[in-house]
Write a structure and sequence with these properties.
Elements lengths: L11 H4 L6 E11 L3 E2 L5 E9 L2 E12 L14 E12 L2 E6 L5 E5 L11 E2 L7 H14 L11 E2 L9 E15 L2 E7 L9 E2 L2 H23 L3 H15 L5 E6 L18 E12 L2 E6 L4 E3 L6 H15 L17 E3 L8 E2 L1 H5 L6 E13 L14 E7 L4 E8 L5 E10 L13 E10 L1 H4 L6 H12 L10 E2 L3 E10 L9 E6 L1 E3 L4
């Protein structure tokens, strides 16, 4: 069928016999990427399209424009695109279509089956015939039962990822936003725990600079949210308890060459399960991070996608059974480095995020964490000249990371005075500060003679601290450490009965480092 421009509209299957010619195509968008800059002055993006005639692997489309705004703003994979006057080329033995900024045109339509033929984006030269409208209707009806062939794609769970890999992920988008000027993150989750990372030994001292930054940020956040915290805490707890209390949250950032003008379209897939293709994985500051590169794409995910339905059932079951001890690895098996005394044995096993978002102001929990850093890390510096303990511990599990400051007021009792920083993964007014970090003061009490066995000599104290940090004998200069999982007892309480949630704090008790591990 010829369009008004005289260019023939053909199914994708017929494109394979029209090399070096110009054609028009109506197709479903199987995959799409964000615009990126080319080596010259143009912008480009890549789509993969399918139709009734060619839907096993689809066909790539390379689109070029003077600005990113003139490229397709794809609202969601699975939408329909009408490409007019595009050239048929080959690259690496594969046929593809090339959209020219000089003579090609396009229109984007919603993919859902309806009678609406109003495109949500059109280029300046676009024209549609009645026959084109009929083709769009037929394609929408076909898409209703279309299941993409994912045979060549392996979609990994978070628990299977490895540093440096380029992987495909099937996950749920929890939040997307700008955490700092020109710094954007997507927060995704699939209900499984990402593998714990090897900790660099240089962190033993590097934490000083991180701690100073967190302390400044904490004071700013605390002043801002002091009057609005109580209003949001109910929504915060409800959201976190439903989605965030088990399993790891993967932060995804963007390669510098990707244009940010289309990022607002991610609002269309927020809180939806999606498929991401060719995502690069990194470890940044000891935390997993995904990198959205120019080659990363969003893939069409039908509402009844078999893989997504399986992932949903698994994550729903894990959430519903999260309080069962070590159900599918919800709580790692702790080592014998620490011992929790008998008065905490009846406390439920929970993640750090579950403890922080528990619906009771006062409660007692048992958490399994890793001590990934300490400041100071030299045992002879843990006490001031007056004999007062003073140190900062960085603790983490699969759901959160906290900083705990240890301070002893006298030679008998030690007070852990700390603040906890964790990603709340969404933005309320006045809470969008530095990677969505939300801070709470936590006042944690324990007897120092229980934790470290009183005031041992430097050698004994060094051995106990090294046990917590995963430093092996004679391995203090090693580049890597593997801190053990250890049990701690965490209690919550409040300081002001008129503002119980706003003054909610935590304390660690009934925990000690074992003499022999």
């Amino acid at each position: 069928m010829a369009s008004r421009s005289g260019i023939k509209r053909v199914p994708i299957k017929d494109v394979l016999s029209l090399l070096s010619q110009r054609v028009s195509v109506v197709a479903v968008i199987l995959e799409y990427s964000f615009p990126k800059t080319t080596r010259g002055t143009d912008y480009c993006c890549v789509l993969r399209i399918v139709d009734q005639s060619h839907h096993e692997t689809g066909m790539a489309v390379n689109l070029f424009a003077l600005t990113a705004d003139k490229l397709p703003h794809v609202a969601e994979a699975g939408d329909v695109i009408h490409l007019c006057n595009v050239s048929v080329r080959t690259f690496d033995g594969e046929y593809n279509l090339v959209y020219s900024k000089a003579f090609s045109s396009f229109a984007l339509y919603q993919g859902k089956d309806s009678d609406d033929l109003v495109p949500y984006q059109v280029s300046s030269k676009y024209q549609r015939t009645n026959a084109d409208g009929i083709c769009i209707h037929e394609l929408r009806k076909w898409r209703v039962n279309f299941q993409p062939n994912d045979g060549r794609h392996e979609f990994r769970l978070f628990k299977e990822i490895k540093e440096g890999d380029h992987v495909n992920l099937a996950c749920k988008i929890l939040h997307f936003g700008e955490v700092a000027k020109d710094e954007w993150f997507i927060y995704v989750w699939d209900g499984t725990n990402a593998p714990p990372n090897t900790i660099r030994s240089k962190w033993l001292s590097f934490q000083l600079y991180i701690s100073i930054a967190l302390e400044v940020i904490f004071r700013l956040v605390y002043m801002i949210v002091k009057n609005v915290l109580c209003y949001y805490v109910g929504v915060l707890k409800k959201f976190c308890c439903l989605y965030l209390t088990v399993g790891s949250i993967l932060r995804i950032t963007f390669d510098g060459s990707i244009d940010k003008s289309h990022f607002h379209l991610l609002d269309n897939v927020k809180l939806k399960w999606i498929k991401l293709v060719n995502m690069r994985l990194e470890v940044h500051a000891g935390l997993w991070r995904g990198l959205f590169t120019p080659f990363t794409k969003f893939r069409y995910t039908p509402a009844e996608d078999n893989l997504i339905l399986t992932r949903k059932r698994f994550s729903d079951e894990r959430i519903s059974r999260r309080f069962e001890i070590n159900y599918l690895g919800c709580v790692p098996v702790p080592s014998t480095v620490t011992v929790v005394t008998v008065d905490c044995h009846c406390a439920p096993h929970v993640t750090l995020m579950e403890a922080l978002t528990n619906n009771q102001v006062t409660a007692k929990f048992k958490c399994v964490v890793r001590v990934v850093a300490a400041l100071p890390c030299q045992p002879e510096m843990l006490r001031s000249p007056a004999g007062i303990y003073r140190m900062q511990l960085t603790l983490e599990d699969a759901t959160a990371r906290i900083h705990a400051y240890v301070f002893a007021k006298d030679g008998v009792c030690t007070n852990f005075f700390c603040f906890i920083t964790f990603n709340i993964l969404f933005c309320f007014p006045y809470l969008c500060v530095w990677s969505f970090s939300f801070s709470l003061f936590c006042y944690l009490d324990t007897w120092q003679e229980t934790l470290f066995g009183g005031y041992p000599d430097t050698d004994s104290l060094s051995k106990k601290l090294n046990k917590l940090l995963g430093v092996t004998e004679g391995g203090a200069t090693s580049d890597k450490r593997h801190p053990p999982w250890v049990s701690v007892c965490l209690e919550s309480y409040y300081l002001n009965k008129d503002d119980t949630w706003g003054t909610r704090h935590f304390r660690v008790s009934s925990t000690k480092v074992a003499e022999e591990a």
